[in-house]
UniProtKB/TrEMBL annotation:
GO cellular component, one term: plasma membrane
UniProt cross-references to Pfam families, sorted A to Z: BPD_transp_1
PANTHER family reported in the protein's UniProt record: ABC TRANSPORTER PERMEASE PROTEIN MG189-RELATED (PTHR43744:SF12), ABC TRANSPORTER PERMEASE PROTEIN MG189-RELATED-RELATED (PTHR43744)
Protein name: Carbohydrate ABC transporter permease
Length: 269
């Protein structure tokens, strides 16, 4: 049984890593070389595609735009969602259940249903073609998910801790900042990683709200390499590698926090 499971794991790993290796090698090819031999090794490891990305294709601007949107979007979502989750856990009876239910309903509405009214709202506010508008949209979209995750964890915190803090004279803000947040750090870390992947890879909302080149994010910028009759696959794959690098680095350094958050939620839920 163990041998079969190990063999299946190896097959699964190969199915994932082989396309990744093929894409990585393709970034060193020219477009003509790519069409001549799709899976073959490059004739030489030429970093011209990477240099072109940052010198001619404004990849540095797109990368920085993605960093700004992701950093502010995830940070503000975590702040607001943790406040809301704390409020829900402190509200007893039907008010807390109704508030939690409203945010849960936000997860059930497909993004495509909201496209027209959301665009009209952002347009009326004058926030189209701006990173500020994109950040606000990402916050509104990811907030229900973050509230759902953090509420489930905060409900597992012992109420005796908050009662003891109240007896000691702590205000609601002090209980939130000095009791709930420190105990919720594993869950906050796991939620942050989850939100990072969602916002960093988002294409729908940049495609909907951004038309100015100066405000494009990485996923939207990658569409420039797809033509109607021919696609520049080496440049496209180079952009994919550059866009994927932050997620790989984040996973390598933060995976223990992600696992700790998931384990904390499973053990306390």
């Amino acid at each position: 049984m163990k041998v079969t499971k190990g063999f299946l794991n190896v097959i699964y790993a190969l199915l994932i890593i082989i396309p990744v290796i093929a894409i990585f090698f393709a970034t060193f090819k020219s477009n003509a070389e790519m069409y001549q031999d799709v899976l073959g090794l490059p004739e030489s490891f030429n970093f011209g595609n990477y240099l072109t990305m940052f010198s001619e294709e404004s990849m540095g601007v797109y990368f920085w735009n993605s960093v700004i949107v992701t950093l502010f979007g995830v940070s503000l979502t975590l702040f607001f969602s943790s406040l809301i989750a704390f409020a829900i856990t402190r509200l007893s009876g039907w008010p807390g259940r109704i508030l939690f239910g409203l945010f849960t309903l936000g997860m059930m509405v497909p993004a495509q249903v909201n496209m027209i009214p959301l665009y009209q709202l952002v347009f009326d506010l004058g926030l189209t073609n701006s990173l500020t508008g994109l950040i606000l949209v990402n916050i509104s979209v990811t907030l229900p998910v973050a509230v759902f995750i953090l509420t489930g964890f905060m409900k597992s915190l012992p109420s005796s801790l908050f009662e003891a803090s109240r007896i000691d004279g702590a205000s609601n803000w002090q209980m939130y900042a000095k009791v709930a947040i420190p105990l919720s750090l594993p869950s906050l870390s796991a939620t942050a990683i989850f939100l990072f992947v969602m916002v960093w890879n988002d294409l729908l909302y940049p495609l909907l709200f951004i038309t100015d080149t100066d405000y494009k994010t990485l996923p939207l910028a990658l569409l420039e390499f797809q033509g109607e009759y021919m696609t520049n696959y080496p440049m496209l794959f180079t952009g994919v590698i550059i866009a994927s690098a932050p997620m790989v680095i984040a996973y390598i350094f933060l995976q223990r926090y992600f696992v700790a958050g998931m384990m904390a939620g499973s053990l306390k839920g």
